[in-house]
């Protein structure tokens, strides 16, 4: 099913959903990929960068991953899914979301997956972020 591409409809139907967990960003060497497979259920995202694998993990494996990580683990963050099936070629949805949050001093780390856009905001700003998103 093709996703929605009309920005007006996307913003009107946007349904942000806050996950209850705490999430962290880390980086590990690609040679650690097999070791990470033991934690697949707790890894939200993996992105290959020139410097290594960037991973987003839930709190349950933070201590385990700290042994594998090349750098400090950063967080906690709240994980918000925009429950609107947006087209991968739609224009402006994340720009509107990140702009609204940035104007209130809330940092955002975002990514788009096949079905939805997802954002991470500082955990202590999650309620404020949800209020802003619900009022867009």
Give the biggest beta sheet: 7 strands, antiparallel
- Named at the architecture level, the CATH assignment is 2-Layer Sandwich
Measured distance between first and last alpha carbons: 26 Å
Which residues form runs of ≥5 with pLDDT under 50?
none
Q: What's the helix count? A: 5
Share of helix among residues? 25-40%
Domain count: 1
Question: Any idea what the shape is?
Answer: globular
Oligomer state equals single chain
Structural class, judged by helices and strands? alpha+beta
CATH T-level fold name: VC0802-like
How many individual β-strands? Answer: 7
Classified in CATH, the superfamily is VC0802-like
**What CATH first level would be assigned?**
Alpha Beta
Would you list the SSEs in sequence order as H and E? HEEHEEHEHEEH
Q: What number is the mean pLDDT? A: 87
Beta fraction of the residues? 25-35%
**Gyration radius, in Å:** 16 Å
Brief synopsis:
26% of the residues lie in helices and 31% in strands. The chain is an alpha+beta fold and 136 residues long.
Give a description of the structure.
The chain is α+β, with helices and mostly antiparallel strands and 136 residues long. The protein has a single domain, classed as 2-Layer Sandwich (VC0802-like), CATH 3.30.2130.10. 26% of the residues lie in helices and 31% in strands. The radius of gyration is 16 Å and the shape is globular. The relative contact order is 0.23.
